[in-house]
Amino acid sequence: MQQPSPADEYATAEEISDAVGRLTVEEQIRLAKKARILIWGTEYFNPLELLGEAVKRALIAATGDRRDKERGRPWPKNRVELPAFLSESMKSIADSSRESIHQTQTVELEAIAGDTGDMDSALNDEGYSQPDIVAQAIAFEEDEARISAAKADVAKIEKHFENDQDVLAILEGEKEEMSAAEVLSMFSIDQKTYDSARRRLRRQVDKLMPGRSLK
Amino acid sequence: MKNDVQKEIDAFRKLALADLDTLSDAELMAEIAADGGNPQEMSDQIAARLDDVVSQFLRYRTAEAKVQANSKKPEAAIWRPAMERIKQLIEQAFAADPKLATAFRDGKRQSDSDLQTLYDDLVDMGKINPDHDPR
Q1: Dihedral through CA B104, CA A15, CA B42, CA A31, nearest 10?
Q2: Which of B19, B97, B105 is most worth mutating to test chain A (most A CB atoms within 10 A of its CB)?
């Protein structure tokens, strides 16, 4: 049987603990800043909660000991540096959160709720009383609150940049999935202008992100 | 949220992450300072949170392993050395393996009963070689 190469070796719980303790100030802050950007639109309200979840999943994978619905994500210690690994892990966790079952379930529940959006009445009218349906209804309402908050965030950022043509250009390009080169060409801006607009956007997103303290 | 808002947020997020990746460590620190932040305070806060995650996880797993181990072996009368000796053995175990101190929070601010349980855990984990029962 073929032996795994050293590059494929996964870290043990002790190695993860050691490596987490050795993260530099810059690495810690960069990870927290990434988490702050990534939690937007997810169930997480605290960036460190997301970062902690990434660490926990590495530990779960290392012990091979899952509980309930816990999901592990092994850290290939010789192939990927810990900050890069945690960064990718946070991205994956945040993506999953956004695409969570709650959000997909809402399609059916929205249909049940109809135009009024009143889940309680709709469920009673339909004779639904099973706990899972009620739980879905609660999840629906939580998602609704999350979506409303996200819409308000977007409106606030759009308002801030309504007269900044360069930022509007790079946003438009990103939404149309254009490459940076295509954006430069289509909107007749140079690389420096592109980089500067992107920096302004990130700084403002960072400042306007509501209720996302590093606590 | 598969709509315009989601698309807009995706665009904000991708651009912001891409920009963060181009930021040097020095620029990152300068930004924190410009925003009135204190990097060391932030670092302490992050480290404390991650330490919580790691220590809680390790303690939880150790407790679980202990329950499983206890369920497999018959109860035996537990002999422990005197409290001062227990403290000494715990300190030696922590000094020999600093990760244990993280997992068990250095054994500080704990009652005698907590220390006895901690002693039992460390013996079960093979981190303390128990003194011989003099009886």
Answers
A1: -140
A2: B19
